[in-house]
Amino acid sequence: MKRLIAILLPLLLSLGVAAESYTIKVHAPQLANRDVFLASYFNGKIYSRDTTHLNANGYGYFSKPKRLEEGLYMLYVNPNSRYYEFLVAERQNLDLNVTDTTQSVVKCFSVTGDEQSEKFVEMGRYITTQREKSMALGEKIKQAQEQGQPTKKYEEQLKELDKEVIGYQNQIVEQYKGRMLGLFVHALQNPRFPEELVTADLKDEKVQFARYAYAKDHYFDNYDLSDVRSWRINQLNQRLQDFLDHHVIQLPDSIIPEVLRLIEKSRGDTVCFNLMTNYMINYSVTSRIMGMDKLFARIAENYYFTGQAYWADSTLMSTIRSEYAKVRLNLLGMKAGNLPLKEYGGKAFRVYDINKPFTLVYFFEPTCGHCKEVTPKVHDLYEKYKDKGFEVIAIYLLQDREEWREFIEKNHMQDWINAWDPDRESYYWEFYDTSTTPGIYLLDSEKKIVAKKISAESLDDILNYELIEKNDKESNGRRNPKSTKTADYETSIDLQ
């Protein structure tokens, strides 16, 4: 299986280093006369740690005068080859043996020299065996269903198999509590609902909400988010992504408190606090959910501007302050800037002068490729909704009046409110983020920002709901989820 092998970060080298050494011997006869590599998991990626050349008999070793950090490691030949995972724990004089590379990993790979490392490989064999039994029972259930025969016997066997695996894992977690293997296995386990939520009526909406709330609140019960070893296995980053994508309502006001809760849970260790905060601020700027700059602003305010983000150097702080300045006055739910503008004909007006249920403030530049693509789509939407309470203020950001006129005529924008600020008196860049164009801000009747930086398709979806479906008694009142997504042309900043 192909894996990304990255250059080791200096941070990774410095974390948790003790004065002792490590030695990992390798015996892999079928890989004789080849280079083999040692790699480790950290923060959702794989980092190359060491390399050695196996002799003609397949022997070689890795050794350094500093201990390895406890976590999940792998032996591999090249990034495209199969890999052999093993656990590095307290004792770091290990022997890795690969007997037959034509066999499955669990059959040909073994580790000796540390109890936890040995148990980890043993567990892999056990889980593989149980998975094979589960698949066989699943096939029997399928065949019985096709033949119209009872399946209860096989289903009961499947339940017993599940209980057996859970019991096996629980035993390891208890036996190695607080140690690397216990931490790893505990992270594999999903928290389970209490009995009252298992047996309750799933058709009851209150039960559904209770199950949702319990699953959300207890999703990370089996993780110590202030233990840096949790970032050295291959589950935490995947689990964070799954939690944010599938276990929280996909709206900024629902996501923000959950993110802040996870950051606070990581505070027990400075490195974990660093990793979690960086993970979340990067999530905020790469998310395609509309309005997630609100999360970015909260993280910046809570941790970076208060000096708690000790790792942030002057360059990073400059970037964060710059991006914060772009969004701080135009977050979802805020009153939009009441810009003083001039119409194409010279008449002065302000944004708040437009008295419509929904007003689109549309910033553009004629040479912008996306503006050329999006403007006709927005005009089609104007034609569709203008009689239902929709208006467009199209703001030209440059100063070439002839260029502006040509763009208006080419895109048939004469029926819009075409405006500009040639003397830069409105300071529009302070109130709206115009660093990328087109800039799309949808305002309600109170001039609050209800949508921003969205595609024309999502704008259509929102307007259809607000101006048509909302007033339709037969409507189910549900908005298409795509209305919460940002436009595909929106760019994100680099906080790495």
List the helices and strands and how they pair.
Blueprint: E1 5-6, H1 10-14, E2 22-27, E3 35-42, E4 45-53, E5 59-64, E6 71-76, E7 83-88, E8 93-98, H2 105-108, E9 109-112, H3 115-146, H4 152-175, H5 180-188, H6 195-198, H7 205-217, H8 236-246, H9 252-265, H10 270-286, H11 293-304, H12 314-327, E10 340-343, E11 348-350, E12 358-364, H13 369-385, E13 390-396, H14 401-410, E14 417-420, H15 428-431, E15 439-443, E16 449-452, H16 456-467
Parallel strand pairs: 1-4, 2-8, 12-13, 13-14
Antiparallel strand pairs: 2-5, 3-4, 3-6, 6-7, 8-9, 10-11, 10-14, 12-15, 15-16
Helix pairs in contact: 3-4, 4-5, 9-10, 9-11, 10-11, 11-12, 13-16
**Main sheet specs:** 7 strands, mixed
The CATH class of the largest domain is Alpha Beta
Number of domains: 4
CATH topology of the largest domain: Glutaredoxin
Number of helices: 16
**How much of the residues is beta strand, in percent?**
15-25%
The helix fraction, in percent, is: 40-55%
What is the terminal-to-terminal distance?
Answer: 27 Å
CATH superfamily of the largest domain: Glutaredoxin
The radius of gyration over CA amounts to: 29 Å
The global form is elongated
The pLDDT mean sits at: 90
